Amino acid sequence: MLFAIGAGDTIIATSDSADFPEEAKVIPRVGGFYGIQIEKIIELNPDLIVTWKGGNNVETLDRLTSLGFTLVNSDPKTLADVARDLERLGQLTGHEAQANKLAKNYRQQLSLLRQENAAKADVKVFYQLWSTPLMTVAKNSWIQQIIDVCHGQNIFYAAENEYPQVSVESVLLKAPDVILQSQDEGNIIGIDWSPWHEIPAVINKHIYQLDADLLHRPSLRTLLGIKTLCDVLDDARSTESTSVVN
After folding, report:
1. Paired sense of beta strands 207-210 and 178-182, if any
2. 37, 78, 118, 219: which has the fewest C-beta neighbours closer than 10 Å?
3. Any idea where the Fe/B12 periplasmic-binding domain is (predicted)?
4. Residue-range domains of the chain with CATH
5. What's the CA angle centered on 177, arms 239 and 109, to 5 degrees?
6. pLDDT tens profile 60-80
7. Angle at alpha carbon of residue 182, lines to 180 and 186, rounded to 5°
8. Which residues pair with 104 in a beta bridge?
9. What is the pTM of this model?
10. What is the pLDDT of residue 8?
């Protein structure tokens, strides 16, 4: 999002997982899930540190704050939060005009996607977040919000937590029309659905692999993720309609 609003050239360091756009890959790294190199950050002396609290050790963030650094948490929880985050980053970096323009366009495109899909037929969806253990998504999760835009009916919507662990047997019982998998190789090869002909998604070949970066990372690219997911649900609807006619 910093690159999108025109602040990319002000980034002096980043985390190991930063890989978009291409220019991000050459920015010096100062850590990742294993921890942050505080000494390196002290040496670089940034004016602003954009953090993700969900992916960083609280003690590390507290330590950076105690050292006098300015920290801001970027962690959109809803689709609407992406636009608000863009505007806030624009204010903090002096790129308000570009940020406000992108935020406005994002809101318009998101509204249009909601309108385009609102009246479409329900499609029973199983989102395979991971295979071993078999995990999915439920109400209030980030992915559920995307499924809602596309008018999908998540078979595990009512689970007790946002990212529940489930069994193959429970998927069989709920008989999804579509199975969506993140494109990670370990996820795709982790479970072979082909023997389970009781599942409509298997019978009709409605198993799709989707780019996890577009779906799991809150950003402007979320719009591409939504459109991709909506397109595969449309493909499933189209196939089912043809079968009924035939």
Report:
1. parallel
2. 118
3. 1-237
4. 8-112 (3.40.50.1980), 120-245 (3.40.50.1980)
5. 75
6. 999 999 999 999 999 999 999
7. 120
8. none
9. 0.93
10. 97
